[in-house]
């Protein structure tokens, strides 16, 4: 319920008018349908009394047509209005979710190691439209209809109205709530089973080569199908219950209709209503019941939304406990970095990720950072970006700690990472992200620097070429060059290269490194790399091991003095003699 | 509209016949229901006593219950059939996915296949479950009702008979218009709808560029554009429901007035008129249901088509193949004129010829795209050659997708698969019955001891999707332990260390070299330092083996291998 109050209720309040209009139109649509039947029944009964002139039936004839038309029109408008309101809400939720994620963007991956969490969250927002379209609107319309029908009936016979209220409650309250509570667990189990199937199959498809050569693939298929059948059986139970419930509700409807018929006949005999109303009342029962029956289905869906809301809530809770610092220091076009005895330890870990590290990187220096995974390279980078604060010691860029710069830190530090994200828009727009005010000359200039100018000219649409999803249109090397152009346009004094050449073949790799280092000549470069191609050009080489400096110096120094470095260098160059 | 494939599923004809029969019964019961309800109302209208109308009401109620009982039966039958068919289709599909092998899977997209198996199948089930009864109802109920109405009142019958075809034509036209509208803005639509997820996935990049704050505004603007575009499409799409509502309501209104006018003139009785009035909405109800569920069933129909498309793809039937001899010290593998064409018919590999024997270690080098990985794929049987012949100890094969061959292989790619499960389970993958001691021995040899000691649950630590994430080097060690456990005699490596940092690579190499002894090894890489440890090197260029020999021989030759070595040593401007 708190999830409802946080994520649904505020929007209901905010879009009160649109919500009410939708519900009103929805009620109008059902009522028009009901009134069409009511008036038709009345019209025919009155006509059979053979009145003197057709003029006596003039009003019902007009009404029949009006209701016929208004049912179609209001139903159409209801759907348009409802979708419009819901799309507005989704739009706001997207902005809200983005706003929640943005401040902690650099820490999300670390905190939630689940596959494509961000994609899932985007889907969650889309799913939330069902909350309104399939649950809230039909429920509200159903309830209004219930109240209206009972009120109208009460005008004729309040005692019978109470009795009817009781009977209809079975359809409006008992069945939906019963479905909700009994099926909740069942739905959850079925969903869990589906999730499990998903995991098993994903594992198997990604590891298909292992299954093929294991000689046990039939074993997997048999096991998977057994699980799948179990899952189907669980879903079948739900489906069968739905079918049986439909049948039961129809039986109840039939009984209610007969009761209304008998009541109307009785009332006419006692002169409480005119006889022409017998048909009208009896016949109107069916369309009203048809409007109430879907309530069970609408309510039953509620548990399905919980998971999406829960996921959003988890993200929000994680984000909330971190205050955001406002930048109050101006960024410069020059930057010296000095790191003084810093340590950092992740929450709940036994050992420091970085331990008493001191380092100075004067402006313009080229530093290579090496180390095994988990050696502390990423931690150092996050500290430099101010995404985390050192447990002890100090890190300074131009005598200020990165955190003091706030978001201006990104005017100081640019990053080219392993898989730079390229957005599904044009090449130019992607590059322009570096600097929205850049002139076309400036853009062409950076394209020249990354040596993509000829290639771009050869494309029919040039810079207007679409990147397609995640930049698929271009090769790995080209994607890195586009991302590099973006960083050059951004023109930050410090550039961090986070293994940008991983996965590229050696020829492409050396060309790319050459381009990168040439175009970043004047800047401070911190290059995280996994092997030693291009290492000779770096002014300082730093090997980290378990958060400590294992080797440090220039290439020449290390080659002359460090045996381990020599060994690695010879290995990298294929010079190993064993 | 009718999908002819529906007739091909097992038991579909009898299911359709049964549903048809139940629907026919339903149509008859609906007439009874209307008849007795109108009789009861008319009697009451004429002032009959309650006891006189009770039997009519009772018959109505029985008919009403019977009708919905038949409905329930129809749904049950259709559901069962849909479930059965979907399950058997799923089984075939999973089987097919495994027969396709990793390369074809990559082509189709692993994500797509998984979605097809786990979401496409339920969608297809929904389609079968809804479409058959809806379609039957549409074909039978209006027909029976209009026939009956025609016999009791010709004019109403004619009105109803005329309106339905007009309605159908209208719906088709509207559907066509909506489709056109959708197609016209499909590209904009896709772009807009993907914008948000694109923004979230690229959030880190936006942050690095210092644009993440201002991007919030962009999300708002694009979301709004998307809403407006969606609204435009919906306005047209919802018109079909509008047309259904409109025609139905107006027809009922016309019939009500027409009946009223003739009642005044005394040309028709109240009972008949009421029955027709009750039957009129029933007449339209099947087409309304079909129309409302139409879109819900369409993705299922599409999924069905995709699944059938996949099932007819050609794959190797492993059961009918001769079995491959067991590889020993004296075995001999010969590739004769092996070529592989891509789907677009260009040569990935052309006329590969070589002979390897016993426990040789073969290095495969060359630039990306030269064909190294394809050669490994042919050796592992993940893909089949387009031309040529392979012989193992004198037994000829068209390809190596042979179970007895694959049973002897270990394949270690750049990123070996870590299955969700414990470390021990992962190591046991090829040999589920291995004892704990055997697992521990293999793990020790693969250098996993220290890592496993550091885990709170040791060998029972969960890794993979739902557990601890391992580093690249650790993944490689798990894969090595896996193959050590079963001691398979053929090892295939495809760039196993390209992504590892130099120190890890160095350590892994030390673990790995002893393992390569007394094995047939194929080792594709562009890390040339491995070549010293190989007995024979294939240099692949543009789909051909251009040089073959030992490290020393090839260096002396200073040909293609020499050039590769040169480029590698030089580094950048070194």
Short précis:
The complex is a heterodimer of chains A (578) and B (574). Chain A has 578 residues and is α/β, with parallel strands linked by helices.
If you had to describe this structure to a student in words, what would you say it looks like?
The complex is a heterodimer of chains A (578) and B (574). Chain A has 578 residues and is an alpha/beta fold. Chain A has two domains: 319 residues, ABC transporter type 1, transmembrane domain (ABC transporter transmembrane region fold, Up-down Bundle); 236 residues, Rossmann fold (3-Layer(aba) Sandwich). In chain A, 63% of the residues lie in helices and 9% in strands. With 574 residues, chain B is an alpha/beta fold. Chain B folds into four domains: 174 residues, ABC transporter type 1, transmembrane domain (ABC transporter transmembrane region fold, Up-down Bundle), CATH 1.20.1560.10; 114 residues, no CATH class; 171 residues, Rossmann fold, CATH 3.40.50.300; 70 residues, 3-Layer(aba) Sandwich (Rossmann fold). Chains A and B meet through α3, α4, α5, α6 and α8 of A and α1, α2, α3, α5 and α6 of B.
List keywords for this structure.
heterodimer; A: alpha/beta; ABC transporter transmembrane region fold; Rossmann fold; six-stranded mixed beta sheet; three-stranded antiparallel beta sheet; 22 helices; elongated; B: 574 residues; alpha/beta; four-stranded antiparallel beta sheet
């Amino acid at each position: 319920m708190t999830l409802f109050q946080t994520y649904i209720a505020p929007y209901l309040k905010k879009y009160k008018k649109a919500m009410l209009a939708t519900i009103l139109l929805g009620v109008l649509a059902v009522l028009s349908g009901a009134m069409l039947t009511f008036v038709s029944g009345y019209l025919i009964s009155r006509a059979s009394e053979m009145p003197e002139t057709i003029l006596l039936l003039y009003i019902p004839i007009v009404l029949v047509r009006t209701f016929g038309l208004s049912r179609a029109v209001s139903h159409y408008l209801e759907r348009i209005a409802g979708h419009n309101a819901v799309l507005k809400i989704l739009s706001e939720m997207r902005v809200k979710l983005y706003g929640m994620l943005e401040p902690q963007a650099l820490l999300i991956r670390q905190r939630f190691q689940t596959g494509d969490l961000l994609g899932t969250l985007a889907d969650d927002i889309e799913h939330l439209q069902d909350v309104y379209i399939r649950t809230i609107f039909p429920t509200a319309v159903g309830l209004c209809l219930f109240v209206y029908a009972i009120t109208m009936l009460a005008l004729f016979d309040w005692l019978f109205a109470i009795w009817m209220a009781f009977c209809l409650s079975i359809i409006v309250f008992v069945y939906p709530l019963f479905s909700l509570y009994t099926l909740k667990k069942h739905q959850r189990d079925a969903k869990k089973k589906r999730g499990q199937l998903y995991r098993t199959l994903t594992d198997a498809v990604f590891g298909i080569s292992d299954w093929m050569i294991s000689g046990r693939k039939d074993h997997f298929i048999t096991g998977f199908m057994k699980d799948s059948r179990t899952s189907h059986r669980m879903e079948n139970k739900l489906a069968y219950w739905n079918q049986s419930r439909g049948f039961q509700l129809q039986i109840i409807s039939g009984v209610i209709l007969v009761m209304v018929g008998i009541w109307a006949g009785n009332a006419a005999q006692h002169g409480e209503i005119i006889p022409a109303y017998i048909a009208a009342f009896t016949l109107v029962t069916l369309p009203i019941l048809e409007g109430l029956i879907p309530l069970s289905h609408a309510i039953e869906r509620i548990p399905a939304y919980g998971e999406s809301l829960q996921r959003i809530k988890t993200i929000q809770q994680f984000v909330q406990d971190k205050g955001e610092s406002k930048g109050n220091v101006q960024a410069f076009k020059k930057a010296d970095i000095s790191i003084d005895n810093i340590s950092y330890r992740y929450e709940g870990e036994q050992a420091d990720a970085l331990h008493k590290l001191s380092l100075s990187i004067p402006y313009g220096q080229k530093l290579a950072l090496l180390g095994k995974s988990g050696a502390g390279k990423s931690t150092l980078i996050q500290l430099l970006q101010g995404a985390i604060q050192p447990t002890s010691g100090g890190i300074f860029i131009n005598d200020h700690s990165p955190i003091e710069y706030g978001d201006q830190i990104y005017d100081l530090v640019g990053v080219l990472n392993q898989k730079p994200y390229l957005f599904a828009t044009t090449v130019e727009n992607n590059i322009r992200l570096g600097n929205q005010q850049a002139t076309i000359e400036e853009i062409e200039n950076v394209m020249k620097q990354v040596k993509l100018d000829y290639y771009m000219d050869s494309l029919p649409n040039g810079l207007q070429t679409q990147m397609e999803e995640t930049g698929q249109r271009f090769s790995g090397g080209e994607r890195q060059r586009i991302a590099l152009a973006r960083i050059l346009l951004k023109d930050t004094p410090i550039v961090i290269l986070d293994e940008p050449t991983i996965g590229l073949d050696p020829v492409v790799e050396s060309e790319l490194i050459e381009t990168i280092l040439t175009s970043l000549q004047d800047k401070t470069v911190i290059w995280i790399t996994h092997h030693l191609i291009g290492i000779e050009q770096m002014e300082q080489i730093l090997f980290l091991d378990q958060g400590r400096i294992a080797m440090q110096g220039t290439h020449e120094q290390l080659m002359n003095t460090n045996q381990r470095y020599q060994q690695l260098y010879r290995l990298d160059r294929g010079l190993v003699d064993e | 509209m009718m999908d002819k494939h529906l007739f091909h599923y097992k038991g579909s004809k009898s299911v359709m016949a049964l549903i048809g029969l139940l629907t026919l019964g339903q149509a008859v019961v609906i007439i009874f229901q209307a008849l007795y309800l109108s009789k009861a109302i008319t009697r009451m209208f004429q002032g009959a006593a309650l006891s006189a109308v009770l039997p009519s009401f009772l018959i109505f109620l029985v008919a009403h219950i019977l009708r919905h009982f038949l409905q329930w039966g129809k749904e049950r039958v259709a559901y069962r059939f849909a479930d059965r068919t979907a399950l058997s289709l799923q089984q075939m599909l999973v089987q097919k996915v495994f027969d396709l092998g990793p390369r074809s899977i990559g082509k189709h997209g692993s994500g797509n296949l998984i979605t097809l198996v786990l979401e496409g199948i339920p969608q297809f089930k929904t389609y079968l479950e809804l479409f058959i009864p809806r379609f039957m109802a549409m074909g039978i109920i209006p027909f029976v009702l209009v026939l009956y109405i025609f016999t009791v009142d010709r004019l109403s019958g004619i009105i109803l008979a005329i309106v339905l075809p007009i309605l159908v034509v209208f719906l088709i036209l509207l559907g066509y218009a909506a489709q056109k509208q959708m197609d016209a803005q499909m590209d904009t639509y896709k772009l807009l709808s993907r914008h948000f997820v694109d923004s979230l996935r690229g959030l880190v990049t936006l942050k690095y560029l210092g644009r993440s704050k201002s991007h919030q505004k962009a999300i708002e603007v694009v979301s709004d554009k998307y809403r407006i575009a969606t609204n435009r499409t919906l306005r047209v799409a919802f018109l079909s429901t509008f047309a259904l509502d409109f025609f139905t309501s107006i027809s009922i209104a016309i019939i009500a007035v027409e009946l009223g006018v003739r009642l005044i003139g005394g040309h028709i009785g109240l009972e008949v008129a009421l029955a027709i009035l009750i039957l009129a909405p029933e007449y339209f109800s099947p087409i309304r249901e079909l129309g409302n569920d139409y879109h819900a069933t369409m993705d299922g129909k599409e999924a069905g088509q995709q699944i059938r498309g996949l099932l007819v793809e050609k794959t190797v039937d492993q059961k009918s193949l001769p079995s491959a001899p067991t590889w020993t010290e004296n075995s001999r593998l010969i590739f004769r004129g092996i070529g592989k064409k891509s789907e677009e018919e260009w040569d990935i590999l052309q006329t590969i010829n070589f002979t390897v024997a016993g426990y040789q270690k073969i290095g495969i080098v060359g630039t990306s795209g030269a064909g190294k990985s394809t050669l490994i794929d042919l050796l592992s049987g993940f893909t089949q050659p387009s031309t040529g012949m392979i012989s193992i100890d004198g037994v000829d094969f068209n390809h190596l997708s042979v179970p007895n061959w694959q049973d002897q292989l270990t394949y270690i790619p750049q990123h070996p698969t870590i299955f969700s499960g414990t470390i021990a389970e992962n190591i046991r993958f090829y040999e589920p019955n291995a004892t704990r001691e055997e697992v521990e021995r293999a793990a020790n040899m693969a250098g996993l001891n220290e890592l496993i000691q550091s885990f709170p649950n040791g060998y029972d630590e969960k890794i993979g999707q739902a557990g601890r994430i391992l580093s690249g080097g650790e993944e490689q060690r798990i894969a090595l332990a896996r193959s050590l456990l079963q001691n398979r005699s053929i090892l295939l490596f495809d760039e196993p260390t390209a992504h590892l940092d130099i120190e890890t690579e160095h350590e892994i190499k030390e673990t790995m070299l002893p393992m390569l002894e007394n094995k047939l090894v194929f080792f594709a890489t562009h890390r040339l330092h491995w070549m010293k440890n190989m007995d024979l090197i294939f240099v692949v260029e543009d789909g051909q083996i251009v040089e073959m020999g030992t490290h020393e021989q090839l260096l002396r030759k200073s040909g293609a291998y020499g050039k590769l070595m040169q480029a590698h040593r030089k580094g950048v401007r070194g």
